[in-house]
Structure formats: C-alpha cells, structure tokens
Amino acid sequence: MGVLPRVLIVSLASVALAAPAISQKADSQINPKSVALQRQGQALLSAGKIDAAEDVLETALAVDPRNRRAFVDLARVAEKQRLFGKAIRMTNKALQLEPNDPDAIAVQGEAMVELGAVARAQQNLQKLQTICVRGCPQVAQLSAVISRGPTVAAAKTPDVPKKN
To answer: What pLDDT does 8 receive?
Structure first.
C-alpha cells in the first residue's frame, strides 16, 4: 500500500514537468499571422516609417512571442530611434530563443558600439566568426561598425547653462 501513493506522486510530477516542454513550438511553427506582421513591419522599417513599423512588430510579438525575427526588427527600430539600451534588450530576448542567431548578435553588437561598449561588441564579433565559418554578411557589417566606433558616445552635447 505504501508504494502505490509514491508511484502516483512521481508519475503526476513527471507529467506536470513534461507538459510545458510539450506545449512549446518549434521555430518553424511560429504563427503565420505573426510572420506576416513581422514582414510587414520589416517593410515599413525599410520605408522609413519607424513608428508604424514598431506598432506592427509589437503586434507580431503579441500574436506569437516566439517570433525572434520580430525581436531583431524591433531592435533595429530602437537603433533608429537611438534607444540603444532597448535594442540590446530586444536582441537579448531573441537570443534567449536562439542563442546563435547571427542577426541578433550583430544588431546587439552594433548597439553596444553606439553605447561605447566596444570590447563587448568585439566579443559578439568573435562569436559571429565562430558561428559563420564560411563568413556571413553580419561579420562584415559588425566589423565595419566596430572600426567606425561609436557615434553617440563621441557626440558631445552643447554646454547650455541650466535655468532655475
């Protein structure tokens, strides 16, 4: 009699732990509506309609929060808005879904350079070089940004006296 309750508890615990893993979707199973919205947001971003792109990309993530490309595109929107901390947060979310996403690594590295964290951007470049054995455009893109250096950190704000 003492064995049966223990077996039931162990089996119920294993089912409870396995349920979240079963319900997770693979990247290929991202909601098609979310993918369509992400592509629309990407087109809006390319057209320079940053605010509209941000709205559509956020909607894409509301439809399916596993759409890492939407996170990367939102990071690009944040860079256009000069919100580099937000860009890094968005790429972190994409990298949680896929740690070796070359686009997310490159965009994150670019944002790091803009914030003056060139050493950390170099680490991203090294990771990209490891991932992209044959070479990929993200390596050249991030290398160019690192070579150029930060544009925001180098810009100096004008000295304006404070008013009381």
So the answer is: 46
